[in-house]
Amino acid sequence: MSWIKDNKFAALLAGATLLGAVLLFYVGLNYHGRYTDALEKYRSAAEEVDGFEKIPLYPSKENRAGKTKALNEYRTAIGGLETAFDKFRPKELTNISPQVFTDHAKTANEEVAAAFEKAHTKLPEAFFLGFEAYTASLAREDATGLLDYQLGATKELLLALAKAAPSQLQNLCRPKFPEEDGEKLQGNPNDVARSFPIELTFKGPERSLREFLSGVVKSPNYFYVVRTVRIMNEKSVAPNAKDAKFETTPAAAAAAAKEKDPFGGADFVIPSDEPAAPEPAPTPTPPAVRPPAGGLPGHPPASTTPGRPAATTPGRPATATPAVPARPAAVPARPAVVAPRPVVPAAPAVAAVPRAAAAPVVDSSSILKRVLGNEELEVFLHIDVLEFVPVKALPEVPKSKP
What is the pTM of this model? Predict the structure, then answer.
């Protein structure tokens, strides 16, 4: 203690130095931890940024311009779809009075029933286009707009089925929508269309199903979506090769009938009933042909050569040279005698037999028809009629900055 009293300045300096060292050590240790934490965060953020810069959609200027271009193209495509489905989007569904809707339903039912009757299609007993609930009561006025829209779609659907000519319409079910019972539709605000389901079951050949589906997809007024298709054969046992019935041509059918005939299809005639053969006419004898006295035509008559005159030699007596007799005329050639052809009696006139009408060309390429024959199919279909809601404006695409 005496040293401190004797050396107050030195003791004060040493104490201050020690205290400063302790403070520096504490501060350095504290800030070293913070620095380490900050350094680790920096390195982590740097690595993350480096990773982001390597991905294709990093928010750079070039990528921003490409994204803006893609959004504009997408907007154009959406506009094209809106235009394509405009014809299936009703402009405005106006509610009508319940009695007017009932009159529309009766008129549509009569038209559809007449079409099915013309196609010889059997209908269910209580048939009213799926609106059987309104045969004895009126609809709610605030739901008649939607009901009238669905009535038109159902009518067009059933007219297409009648055109396909099935043998029987077994069932038609139209579930009610909430507005019919005074409730509100709980839909998604992002929906672009509302569906009205229809379920029907009919029986008919395979052709009727093909023609019906082909007519449904070509509708110009309504957009139909086939959700479910179930097809069942009339026979539960699978067909085999013996059930196949192949069409045959008339010639093949005649040949098959000839093979089944015990006499081989020949036409037998009793001898007493045979017509007598006509006797041949006698051959006429040609008359004798004599050459004319003056020769045949085109040949000159026979001529004689005159004798030579007597030659006289002076001092000698004249000697007469005898005349050379003329050559006989050439013997005329015999004319060629042509035997006349025997007269063949003319065949009796045969009445013209009209040709049979050509058999209609049968499409023999349908293997299903060959195997099934007259077998019918039972078809169940679940079809949705889509009502497209009004178009919503798309948000504007921000322009890319340079």
Answer: 0.53
